[in-house]
Amino acid sequence: MSLYGDYDPQNIFALILRGEAPSYKIYEDADVLAFLDVFPQSRGHVLVIPKASQARNILEVEPAVLGAMMATVQRLTRVIVDELKPDGVQIAQFNGAPAGQTVYHIHIHIIPRWEGEEAGVHGRGKADPEELKLLQARLVERISSIG
């Protein structure tokens, strides 16, 4: 898919936002939703999406929405680093299929990285649902404890 096109209201993130598809939500406010990626590149891989925007990529997203997303990315990255103790963290955002975008609803990846562990190929290996539930509970508790 190219950089340009119409927003598909049936994309998986739109379905998650409408409650028509499940997710492992870790954070939500008026502007954004954050949840664990079910096809993670590493343990703790989180996606942050806007709730009201129908932007497909960074070329279309409203500046205020992007600002809210990035503020949440920063906040959640601090929580993830504090809770999971990775050696590094990768923040990624893809635009268009040649760049690696597979869902055409703008989103930002938070991917914890550990020394000596290769990141998985995104979309290839599905995480164990029980492990996701346990991690979700840990992160929700940590986020709740800091307000």
TrEMBL record:
Location of the HIT domain: 12-120
Annotated motif Histidine triad motif, positions: 105-109
GO molecular function ontology, one term from the record: catalytic activity
Taxonomic source organism: Pseudomonas fluorescens
InterPro entries recorded: HINT (IPR039384), Histidine_triad_HIT (IPR001310), HIT-like (IPR011146), HIT-like_sf (IPR036265)
Listed name of the protein: HIT family protein
Membrane-crossing segments per the record: none
Active site (UniProt): 107
GO terms (BP aspect): nucleotide metabolic process
PANTHER family recorded: ADENOSINE 5'-MONOPHOSPHORAMIDASE HNT1 (PTHR46648:SF1), HIT FAMILY PROTEIN 1 (PTHR46648)
Domain of life: Bacteria
